[in-house]
Design a protein that fits this description.
Blueprint (H helix, E strand, L loop, with lengths): L3 H15 L6 E4 L9 H8 L4 E7 L2 E6 L4 E5 L5 E5 L9 E7 L2 E6 L5 E5 L1 H8 L13 H9 L6 H5 L10 H10 L13 H20 L40 E5 L2 E5 L8
Antiparallel strand pairs: 1-6, 2-3, 3-4, 4-8, 5-7, 6-7, 9-10
Helix pairs in contact: 1-7, 6-7
This protein binds zinc ion.
The site of zinc ion has 7 residues, from loops.
């Protein structure tokens, strides 16, 4: 599932293609991806201009010129492509927004959704999210406070909890834990201050590097896009069971923790 780096990368690419552009037409292939009937969605969205695109946690918000918002969550399997009908991949499209310079195709929106909301409804949807991981207001002290609300949780469980910090999921939680040399099942309440500080630094380093490398999405955003997905080869532990740890040479293992997969190096990742 796309996380902070993937969604922020999408935000930047979308901003350069569709910010300030008018939505000429709308096609809905799967009404269930929406929160309103397809004909109503089309009627309300067609002709609107996208003012700008904002990311919050793993969501994107398309701000429309009538004050309404399109709230996107790709969940598992969702992705976007921008281009012409001829360029578009041979995949079922759930929603298509056509602009003068190309069309935005929403693909794989099975669990994911594109909801048409008022500003107030969108705010309400997002109100339950914790702070952004890279928000400068999330100081080490505040980060520590947020984590310690989950004293009894395992590290990974706390990191992927969107009400603690918004935007980290399965992949980056494992990558952050690896970089901080902490086990994903380390108990939050028993982390030393020094360990929390390593975790804080690791969160910044991993997310910034992943974003700069284009995240781990499998599919390009448009023809000629060679940036998206660049982080796929950079993951140190995620989805690499049996491979050698690049830090200590140990063998990366995969386990299950609270019905989530976790990947880690049992040799160099510790409780504290
Ligand atoms: Zn190791």
């Amino acid at each position: 599932m796309p996380e902070y780096p993937e969604m922020d990368h999408y935000r930047i690419m979308l901003s350069s293609e569709v910010a300030g552009k008018r939505i000429r037409s709308v096609q809905v292939g799967r009404e269930k991806s929406l929160n309103v009937p397809a004909d109503e969605f089309v009627r309300q969205v067609e002709g609107r201009t996208v003012w700008f695109i904002e990311r919050r946690g793993k969501h994107l918000l398309f701000h429309l010129d009538n004050g309404q918002r399109l709230l996107l969550h790709l969940m598992l399997g969702g992705w976007m492509f921008f281009g012409s009908e001829e360029e578009k991949p041979d995949r079922t499209v759930q929603v298509k927004l056509e602009f003068d310079n190309g069309s935005l195709f929403f693909i794989g929106l099975r669990l994911g959704y594109l909801h048409l909301l008022t500003a107030r409804e969108a705010d309400k949807e997002l109100a339950k999210l914790g702070p952004e991981p890279l928000d400068p207001r999330l100081t080490l002290e505040r980060f520590n406070e947020r984590l310690m609300t989950k004293k009894r949780s395992a590290l990974k469980t706390a990191l992927v909890d969107q009400s603690v910090i918004a935007g980290i999921g399965n992949c980056y939680a494992d990558e952050i834990a690896w970089q901080a040399e902490l086990l994903p099942n380390a108990r939050i309440g028993s982390l030393t201050q020094e360990a929390v500080s390593r975790l804080y630094d690791a969160m910044h380093n991993v997310l910034l590097e992943a974003k700069a490398s284009g995240g781990y999405m499998e599919y390009p955003f448009r023809i000629g896009d060679t940036v998206t997905g660049g982080y796929n080869d950079e993951c140190k532990v995620y989805d690499r069971p049996g491979e050698a740890c690049s830090r200590c040479g140990g063998t990366i293992v995969q386990e299950e923790q609270s019905s989530r997969k976790v990947f880690f190096c049992p040799d160099c990742q510790k409780d504290q």
